[in-house]
Design brief:
Layout: H1 3-10, H2 13-32, H3 38-49, E1 53-54, H4 55-62, H5 66-78, E2 82-86, E3 94-98, H6 100-120, H7 125-138
Antiparallel strand pairs: 1-3, 2-3
Amino acid sequence: MPEGDSRRAAASAVHLLHRASRVADGVFWRVVGPALTPRQFVVLATVAENEGLNQMAIMEATGIDRSSVAELVERLVKRKLLQRRRTKRDARSYSVRLTTNAQKLLREMLLAARKADDAVLTGADQGEALALLSRLALEPSLRPSE
């Protein structure tokens, strides 16, 4: 591959977003600590905002794929951070709630998670960057099909 082509590939939006995601995960780990992964944190925070969600609703709210949500919920249940109950409307579906342990952990981690966000996106560009990332993440035409 000619040198100019390799520079263009390294500067592609998809590649840079992938690298930025890895950097953001690393910052999260350094600032927040090992208690939760970034994905576990977002699942708990989503459930905290919407008690009783089922796994499909968690998937839609977070953008995490179906199999990953199922695995994340299973791990969080095993760690006694989430409780699952069969829903009355659909016996195949579970509603998910935070445990008392999860509520406490989430309260302790929220400030650290905000600090991690501020470390990743600093200064005047933060609002603009968040707006751009939100538009990209929430664009229906770009969502993967399940």
